[in-house]
Each structure stands twice: as structure tokens, then as C-alpha cells.
Amino acid sequence: MQRSPDNPRRSTAGAGGFTLIEVMIVVVIVAILATIAYPSYQDQVMRSRRSAGAVCLQERAQFMERHYTTNLSYAAAPAPAQCDGSVARFYQVQASGVTARAYTLEAVPQGAQATRDTKCGTLSINQRGERSASGTAGAGECW
């Protein structure tokens, strides 16, 4: 066993490990990083759900256009199908103002998406392909 030069009774063999201060500093750094990263993560999740809802809405608009090409009217088109399971939990698709020559499809946010995505709100598209959002942001930012 090797002895420490400044204290002959103290052994240097077991002098490894971390002090409590070092561990607490690491915990504080991890906590600061988590408080910065988590809101950014939540924002990205909300935006990806919104993009999936917009894609679903465009698919339903294409269905309406195919129906019009076949029947020369939007009026007899069946109600739009809901999105797949991962999107349907956050957006409900509905048709409004359906006539022979016009329609408006809306993707209404549900659950957590409705409470967090106040900037864009309900996404909509009509027979002319005009996109809009009911929130404070413009269609260009939401679509």
C-alpha cells in the first residue's frame, strides 16, 4: 500500500469517486438542459401533428375532386372519412357548405392539440384549393 507524501497515515489507493458537490453540479446542469429542451420538443410534436392533419385534409379534398370528376357535383359525395388512428386522435375532419359546385373541409383540433395549438386552430380547404386557419397565424405558417 502506498502512503501519501504529505500524510503518511493516509492511503492513496481508495481516493477515487465523485464528491456530493460534483454530483449536484451535474444534476443542476441536466435540469437546466431539460427545462430548455422540453418546451422545444413539445412545440415540434404539435407542429408535426398539425402537418399530419393538413395532409389528411388534402387527401380528403382529393377524394372530393375525384367524386366531382365522376359525378359533376360535390353534393352527393359521402361524408369525408376520418384520418388514420394516429391523426384521428388529434384532428376531426368534417365537411361544411357542400353544394353541387362548392365545399369546405375542416380539420378541427381535438384534445391536447386543441389546447396547445391556438396559433393555427382549425385548418380548412375549399374546392378552389384555398387554405385557411382559424387561429392568429396565417395559412402560410400553419399549412
Automatic annotation (TrEMBL):
UniProt feature coiled coil, ranges: none
Example GO BP: type IV pilus assembly
TM region(s), chain numbering: 20-41
InterPro entries: N_methyl_site, PilE-like, Pilin-like
Signal peptide: none
Keywords: Membrane, Transmembrane, Transmembrane helix
UniProt xrefs under NCBIfam families: IV_pilin_GFxxxE
UniProt-recorded name of the protein: Prepilin-type N-terminal cleavage/methylation domain-containing protein
Organism: Novilysobacter ciconiae
Biological classification of the source: Bacteria, Pseudomonadati, Pseudomonadota, Gammaproteobacteria, Lysobacterales
